[in-house]
Amino acid sequence: MSAPPAVRTPPSARSRGRSWLGRLALRRIRRRGLDPSRLTFLPPAARVPLQRVGVDPVPRLAELRVNRPVHRLDLPFDLSVYLVTGAAEARAVLADSAGFSTDVRHLFSGTGPATADDVGGLGPTDPPQHTRLRGLVAPDFTRARMQRLEPAVEETVARALDELAAAGSPADLVRHVAMPVPMTTICALLGLDRPDEQVVSRLGTRRFDATGGTAGTFGAVSAQRRLLFDAVAAQRRAPGDGLIGRIIRSEGDAVSDAEIAGLADGIVTGGFETTASMIALGTLVLLGDPAAAAQVRDGSRRDVERVVDELLRLLSVVQVAFPRFAREDRDLFGTRLRAGDVVLVSLSGADRDPAWAGAHPDRLDPARSTRGGHLAFGHGIHRCVGAELARLELRIVLPALLRRFPDLALAVPPDRLAFRRLAFVFGVDALPVTFRGSAGTP
C-alpha cells in the first residue's frame, strides 16, 4: 500500500511577511550599507568567537576548526561573513594585505552614533596611509625606547602594589593593579593628564562590550575620539613631552589633529584594556598553576618571558582580529569569496589549534615549542605596534605581584568570577584576592 501524497502546507501570512521584510532589509543593506554603529544586538552565530567557558573558548570553535576552518556564519539577510579558526588559515588571511582590506569606513551611513570620521588609527587603515601613520608612532615602541621606559613601569607597578596592600585583604586586583598599571603607562606615553586617564579607562571597557550589539561599542569609540581630539588640540597649542607632543613638533601641520587623535585612540585601545585583561587573567591562571607561578616568582628573566608568552597564547584576550574585506572574487582554502565579503579571524581559536600549538593546546605549558609565534598580537602589517610594551608590563607586574604577596589567593571560587560574557576583548570585571601579608617591596 503506497503512502498518501505529502500535503504541502502553504506558508502562513506571518512567515510570508517575515520573508518579504527580510528581502526588503537585504536590498536596503546592499544599497546603503550595514552601519555597525546602529546594530543593537549580535545574531547568535556571530557570538561564538566572543564566548568562553571560564577562560577557554567555547567548544564550538574547536569543532569548526576541525570540520571547516573557513566557515560561513549563519547570519540574517544572507550576509556573507566567514569565520576563520585554523592557525594556518588565520595567519594567511592576516598576512594578505593585498587581498584583503581592513578599512571599515564604507559601512557607515552617517546616521548612527558614530560616523566614518570616527574611524581612525592603524587597525582599520590600508596602505599607503597605514604605512605613513605607523611610521609616526613606531619610534616610540622600539626596543631601545622600551628599555628606557622600564624604570617608570617598575615605579608604576610598585605604587599599584602598595595600593593593593593598603586596601587590605580581600581586595580587587583589577581595580588596584590590572587597570591602573597599563592606564598610567599609556597616558604617560601619550602625554595625557590624569583626569583624561579616568575617562579613557571607563570608555575603554565599554567599547569592547558586545552584549548590546555594536552600537554601544561605536558610541564609546566616538566619545573617546572626541576626548582625544580635545587633548590633541590643546597640545597643538602647547606640545607636551609624550608621543602626541613629539608628533606635533616633528610633523607640524603635515599631520592633522584627527589623524593624531586616531593614532592615540588606537594606542589606548590596544594598550589599555588588553593589557589590563592579561594582568588579571594571567594572575588567575597562575594562581591555579603553582609550578608556573613559581617559575614567574623565582625564575630568570628568560623563564618569566616564556611563561608570559604562553599566557598570551593561551588567553588570546583579543578574540577577533579587525574584519577583513575581500578586495575581489577569490578562493580561500576551498571557500569561494565574492568581492566585499567579510572575513573574521578568531585569534583565540587559532591560538588553540593543535596543528600549530602542539599537544594539549588548552593547557599552560611554558616549555611549548611553536613555530612562527602566537597570534595574540595579530600578524602581518597590522600586528599590534605596542606588543613589546605589553610584554614589558606583564614581565614586570606578574613577578612583582607574586613576590610581594607570596600567599596571594582567589577570594571566591573561580565559577563566581564575573567574566565578560560577550566582549571583543575578553576579561573579568573584578578579581577578588586574599593575602595575609606582604613580603616587602619587590
TrEMBL record:
Keyword set includes Metal-binding: yes
Molecular function GO labels: heme binding; iron ion binding; monooxygenase activity; oxidoreductase activity, acting on paired donors, with incorporation or reduction of molecular oxygen
InterPro entries tied to this protein: Cyt_P450 (IPR001128), Cyt_P450_B (IPR002397), Cyt_P450_CS (IPR017972), Cyt_P450_sf (IPR036396)
Keywords: Heme, Iron, Metal-binding, Monooxygenase, Oxidoreductase
Pfam families documented for this protein: p450 (PF00067)
Stated family: Belongs to the cytochrome P450 family.
Protein name: Cytochrome P450
